[in-house]
Design goal:
Blueprint: H1 5-14, E1 38-44, E2 47-54, E3 58-63, H2 74-80, E4 84-89, H3 106-119, E5 125-130, H4 132-143, E6 148-154, H5 171-187, H6 194-205, H7 213-217, E7 223-228, H8 236-245, E8 250-254, H9 261-264, H10 266-277
Parallel strand pairs: 3-4, 3-5, 5-6, 6-7, 7-8
Antiparallel strand pairs: 1-2, 2-4
Helix pairs in contact: 1-10, 2-10, 3-4
């Protein structure tokens, strides 16, 4: 493992504002998304998957976390679209995308995103994934490494015991769930089915991911393993284990942030993404 946390953390720390309160204790609202170049719903694996693209250049795919949606990335999209083709989407059942009765699984969700890239005729991307999005990125790195140039995986786990059980009582995390319930009601084609959606995806979270060390160690895609230093959900030793397993990976710890670093420190977050994918 190549530890560059000190360098990238230094970039983060140089721009830390004077804090009136601990910024990891709240989740700022994302600003409105920029105007897309292209948007629509792609027919993939039996669902209608919402997507949007922005800008032009080397392609970057941003994958949101569980219960979320693509618009959470608005700060990063506004920056990266200056010189990249940025692709975002709502994962199956999330946001504006539909779902089926088929059980959720990370292999299936990874297949959804690969099918979306095929639909958009994009062969290879840099992938930035947060939480479930990071897990989907790891899944693609294991199963289809030829589709990735870089993987920036924030707040991901590789086994269920990487999740801190106390997250269920965490006030910040529960505020996120409440906000996503409201967004679901506004965005979803099935706005009254949030509880059913949560139950369905919760069945996946109870048993997945469940990869062996050998499977993770086989990843050859250049990977940054990333966490906020106050992450409520993923145990720090687990993040460090992932970085240790993936040869040549970079361990990046984002200061004064939690599971929601892209919203709490958007400029620094995007700078750390650029420091990795544009190197």
């Amino acid at each position: 493992m190549r530890l560059t946390a000190a360098v990238l953390t230094g970039l983060f720390a140089l721009s830390l504002p004077a804090l009136a309160e601990d910024r990891w204790m709240s989740i700022p609202e994302a600003p409105p998304m920029p105007e897309p170049v292209l948007t629509g719903k792609a027919p993939v694996n039996g669902i209608e998957m919402y997507y949007a693209t922005y800008g032009a250049g080397d392609p970057v795919l941003l994958i949101h976390g569980g219960l979320g949606h693509a618009d959470i990335w608005s700060n990063q999209v506004a920056d990266l679209m200056k010189d990249h083709l940025v692709i975002v989407a709502d994962s199956r059942g999330h946001g504006r995308s539909s779902r089926t009765e088929e059980p959720f699984g990370y292999d299936l969700m990874a297949s959804d995103y690969l099918a979306l890239l095929d639909y958009l005729k994009i062969d290879k991307v840099d992938l930035v994934g947060w939480s479930d999005g990071g897990i989907i990125g790891l899944d693609i790195a294991m199963s289809h490494p030829e589709r990735l140039d870089h993987l920036y995986a924030q707040a991901a786990n590789i086994t269920t015991d990487g999740v801190d059980p106390s997250v269920a009582e965490d006030a910040v995390f529960n505020a996120y769930i409440e906000r996503m319930a409201g967004d679901y009601a506004k965005m979803s084609p099935t706005p009254d089915q949030f509880d059913g959606f949560v139950a369905q995806i919760g069945e996946m979270w109870a048993t997945q991911p469940n990869w062996t060390d050998a499977q993770v160690a086989a990843i050859t895609v250049p990977t940054a393993v990333v966490a906020g230093d106050h992450d409520e959900a993923i145990l720090r030793p687990h993040t460090e284990k992932i970085a240790a397993l993936i040869a040549g990976s970079q361990l990046v710890i984002l200061p004064e942030t939690s599971h929601f670093a892209m919203l709490q420190a958007p400029d620094e977050y995007t700078a750390s993404v650029r420091a990795f994918i544009d190197q």
